[in-house]
Fold:
Amino acid sequence: KGMIVSFGEMLIDFVPTESGVSLAEAPGFLKAPGGAPANVAIAFGHMLAGILKQYGVNGDGISFDQGARTALAFVTLRADGEREFMFYRNPSADMLLKPDELNIELIKSAKVFHYGSISLIVEPCRLAHLKAMEVAKEAGALLSYDPNLREPLWPSREEAKKQIMSIWDKADLIKVSDVELEFLTGNPNIDDANAMTLWRDSLKLLLVTLGEKGCRYYTKNFRGVVESFEVKAVDTTGAGDSFVGALLAKIVDDHSILEDEKRLREVLKFANACGAITTTKKGAIPALPNESEALTLFKEK
Ligand code: ATP
Structure:
């Protein structure tokens, strides 16, 4: 089995016990482990190996800071399961990662290298991120990018856009949400024409996730939509990460899926099932399905 290396922050999401109330009104919070790159790692680790160690993910690349604390993210859940974040990072340990703390051998062994954009917000973590990407690319890994826009963490919208786009041309695979498509293009139309403005010939696959409507996919030779499954969403946190984790787990040992529309559509349907299930429970990591739960939903349609 090929190795997937995921780069970026881990944190604790504080998820409200009640939906449809503001952060101030929330009566209590549940601690849920999270952080997008970790969610993705566990999404595929869970599926392939069963339970960071408990979830079957090799944590050899993790660095611990002696002084700084782990980031916290308080999540507000709207009645429809969509969420907003409030972060506590001052600075948190993930922001302090230095290039010389990277586990270079581990990164070189990656068949897929996955990352977001939160690690581009401040130094020295940004430099560590750029170096890790370079090492992975040099070693022949497929580079997978999910910007995971978190506007409140950036000094300005312009800076967010600039930094997110600064590494656009390096990726082989990019997944954006409908919200990120609008943010990055400045155009609210969630259609092919708009999505294609994010296309680069350096890409093998561009994905736009559409929440309950599933996802759109774009490659050099074909494009289309794969619908999702009907579920009762309570908290969408981690749905996108679950979706990406499932996709990466399927393509890590067979990159040729990206060139075969029929097989890619099957994989995206499975990824939609994983995303859909993740919305039915609170938190990110606690809500990730295992392979058999995802297959059960997958076979329903
Ligand atoms: P996040 O940042 O919360 O991890 P995202 O905004 O990147 O998520 P979404 O578009 O919300 O990603 O969800 C990813 C995938 O999960 C979708 O493409 C879809 O397949 C599935 N999904 C999400 N929400 C629902 C829902 N309400 N019903 C069914 N499927 C859903």
